[in-house]
Each structure stands twice: as structure tokens, then as C-alpha cells.
């Protein structure tokens, strides 16, 4: 985790996201016509601020920032740590950037996180697993993932036990492989960091370690 002082761009992004959440949540609860006008103005200001530090269009930013219809909360991403009997970790090569990552993705609505990670691991690797332990609940921004998103994300890392093997989905996954944690391929750091894989391996070796957070 990077302890350096945030750049001006990072601070603008953080303030814009906070302003966007304030405006969005105000619109959810406010019935006063004048207050709603002010919240709409604040919403537009937040989008304009994000546009200053982003390559996306205003339309795309508006769609990404204001994803929810109710009270705005962080999105939830789940990742599965699966090890073989040699202590090698399962990674998949994602088609979007052709780099390697832990299998995982967004939780679906009404889907428990443990079932979400089991589903994602199976879809992307073909391996059926059971989630056995929540190793870490990380704030994506605090951990320093890049590039920064125009919304807030929590990342849940689970240790998973292999139940059976199958075929991965060819739509999302280019390759599936098992790697020693000290000989990792190029990682998709927007999804997973080396330190997070090392943390999973540490918990695989010592299952009684406490869950990490932030």
C-alpha cells in the first residue's frame, strides 16, 4: 500500500466522487424542488470535475458515476484464491488487457459474496470451488490499484477449496495457469496486486490468521 501524499489529481477525483455521492443521495431523499435543483447542479459539477482528469466522455462518466438508483454505496468486487497441493496459485489471463489476475468480478444483486466468488471462479477457470475464508476486505483506492475508477470499490479476497475441474469460458479467459507466488506473470494490477496474492498465500499456509481490512 502506497503511503505517499495523494497527488492533486487524486484529490480532485476523491472530492468529485464524494460530491457525486452527496448529490445523488440528496436526490434520493429530497422532495423540495429547490433542494433538488441544487443537488442536480452539484451532480453536474462532480461530473465536470471528473471529466477534467479523465479521458472518458461526459456521457460515459455520468453513466459510470451514477450507476445506482438508490443510496449510493461502494461497488463490490470478489476474487478467489485457489491453491493446488504444491502451493501454486490459480490465475487466469483476461481478454480485456491480456494480463493475469485472480478469477473474480462484480457481485450480482441478491448474490451472497461467497456464492459470487464461487460462480466467478467456475466461469473463468472451469474449476468448481467452495469459499472457505474471507482473507481480506480491501478498499481499492487505499490499496493503490491503477487506473483509478470514477466510483468507489471494495474488493473481497476469499480462500477457496477445489471441488472439481472443468473447462473455462472462452469468452472472458485466454488462458488458465498455476503459478508459484514468487514467479508470477505480468499481473492486471487494476484487478489484483502482487501483495494481495502474497497475502492469500500467507493465509493458505496459516489458516488461523485474522481477516485483513482496508
Describe, in plain words, how this protein is organized in 3D:
The structure is a single chain. The chain is α/β, with parallel strands linked by helices. It has two domains: 8-64; 75-213, Nucleoside Triphosphate Pyrophosphohydrolase (Alpha-Beta Complex), CATH 3.90.79. It is 37% helix and 24% strand. It has six helices and eight strands; from the N terminus they run αααββββαβαββαβ. The strands form two sheets. The protein has a five-stranded mixed beta sheet, sandwiched between helices. The termini are close together. The mean pLDDT is 88. InterPro entries: NUDIX_hydrolase-like_dom_sf (IPR015797), NUDIX_hydrolase_CS (IPR020084), NUDIX_hydrolase_dom (IPR000086), UDP-X_N (IPR059176).
Structure characteristics:
single chain; 214 residues; alpha/beta; Nucleoside Triphosphate Pyrophosphohydrolase; 2 domains; 3-stranded antiparallel β-sheet; 6 helices; 24% strand; elongated; hydrolase; Nudix hydrolase domain-containing protein; NUDIX_hydrolase_dom; hydrolase activity
Question: What are the SSEs and their pairings?
Answer:
Elements: H1 8-29, H2 33-52, H3 58-65, E1 75-82, E2 89-94, E3 100-101, E4 104-106, H4 113-125, E5 128-139, H5 140-143, E6 153-164, E7 173-179, H6 194-205, E8 212-213
Helix pairs in contact: 1-2, 2-3
InterPro entries: NUDIX_hydrolase-like_dom_sf, NUDIX_hydrolase_CS, NUDIX_hydrolase_dom, UDP-X_N
Protein name: Nudix hydrolase domain-containing protein
Cofactor: Mg(2+)
